[in-house]
Sequence to fold (334 residues):
Amino acid sequence: MAFLHYIGVDVSKNTLDMAVFKGKDFVFHKVIDNKKIAICNFLKELEMIRGVGLSESVFCMEHTGIYNNPLLVCLHKKRGNVCLEVASQIRYSLGNIRGKSDKIDAIRIGEYVYKNREEIKLWVPKREIVVKLERLSVLRDRLLMTKKQLSVPLKEQKNYIKESFSNLEKRLCQRTLNSLNADLKKVDKQIEKVLREDEHILRLFEIITSVSSVGTQTAVSIITCTNEFKDIRDPKKFACYSGVVPFTRESGLFKGRGRLSHMANKKMKTLLHMCAIVAIGSNKELKAYYLRKVGEGKNKMSVINAVRNKLIHRIFACLRENRKYENNYIKTVA
Fold:
């Protein structure tokens, strides 16, 4: 993409480091507060004083979660061009580097977006309902983690400490656990309510959950991770994103075994793993596939991973044809 100015942004909780380039030439660096007022003033300065038009510029930053939001909101209102990149993608593209600071990082991000200007993909904001589902899913994960941190030690310690101590701790924590369970039910109801507020989201949800063993939380995570399948439309890419694709390492005479990459969405991988375990136990076809492959000497985890991959391809096949999953589906030819 042809832009006149390339602006690298290093995002932190309190500040933004801006490195402005004109083509490949570094122009200036400035630190501003990570607040909407400071960001709007900086954008005015770019246009009024520096002569940097937003329509002919692109802002590139690492994906740092909620800390990106003030800048993204301001740029979206002014129709600015934004490129959101994974931090590891920028890091590995720079080769061997020495030293690190916020200013240096901003300059390196600016250099990265200029060098890769032909391949960069501009950021498209998610719809508000998708963001809402995403935040509810994150909140649910936090509640589950808190519940686990309390309940698991209480269960495990009862065989190793005095029964009176164990019962005392249970009584002291019971009200908190009850409150967490009540809050989890409220969040689950809110997620169901949000799903039914939008026809398109509800249709996607119904198609995904029609696949055997795929539940509500997995379907919600797939919808939010793929941005309603706008960002990821290929099942192979989603399988790679979810960490279920083995990659081989070979060099000369060395022939390495295929292994899964750690660069993946670990939550999505865990959800798909649970779906695969349920599918093996409840779906006759997948259970027969699992037993046959294990009987042939395949590693059990490798076969479970193959089942995860099958579930992904089934979901995307149904979405591609806009239909629910059928066990004995026969494709008709026009």
Notes: The chain has three domains: 5-115, 128-197, 216-249+259-321. The radius of gyration is 25 Å. The chain has twelve helices and nine strands. The first helix runs from residue 36 to 48.
